[in-house]
Amino acid sequence: MVLNNPLFLGFLNIYKSRAPNLFMKIIKTYDKTVGKTEYYKYRAPLPKKVAEDSGLIDKELKITTKNKKIVIVEEKDKKE
Question: Is the dihedral angle over the CA atoms 3, 9, 13, 18 positive or is it negative?
Fold first, then answer.
């Protein structure tokens, strides 16, 4: 079967690394406990090329959801 072939699996790993919009997952990680309440953080790893090409590294971002999609935009007019 093709799916069990080591050559195919190697190709799939290369393909995943070159296709920035495939195989991403939001990860829930434990952050801390305050009293009896547990807090979690959610992380979504972005491909390196997407993060660098966006020009949004080290900037304030506004993140919302729209039609079951996550929308990330630069926060402009941020008053300090």
Answer: negative
